[in-house]
Amino acid sequence: MTKQFRHAVAGLVLFGTAAFALPALALDPAPQPVVVTPLASTNVTAAGQPIVLPEKDARVIVSQFEIAPGASLPVHKHPHPRYAYVQAGNLRVTNVETGQSTDYKPGDFIVEMIGLWHQGANVGTDTVRLLVIDQVEGDEPNTILKQ
Known about the structure:
Layout (H helix, E strand, L loop, with lengths): L2 H25 L30 E10 L8 E2 L4 E7 L2 E5 L5 E4 L4 E3 L6 E5 L5 E10 L6 E2 L2
Antiparallel strand pairs: 1-8, 2-9, 3-6, 3-8, 4-5, 4-7
């Protein structure tokens, strides 16, 4: 490769980089700051239980749930920590053992109850969308359905 060829390639690379960067700079001349908005900080579940993490073979499972208007999840419980972020819709979670219900809306963060039978229901007119994160031990299930 000749010296002239290398300089020509370097010039094209710089020109191409500048061509892509200039429109971006023209649209946004100032660098944007990083904005961190705390959503939750707790050491207890929605039922007031202390959060206890898996002791061994921890596994993280991430899921997205979509619950249609008027639909309900079956009565269930979680043997390990489960967290949910409400992206859309209105969710009502009822502890079937106590009858206590809590309503959640978009932007709410839920630290679900552990080992207690409960049920979620879409009580709004829009689909409920949840980002759900489970922490389980090994291959244990993240949800147990009531028979």
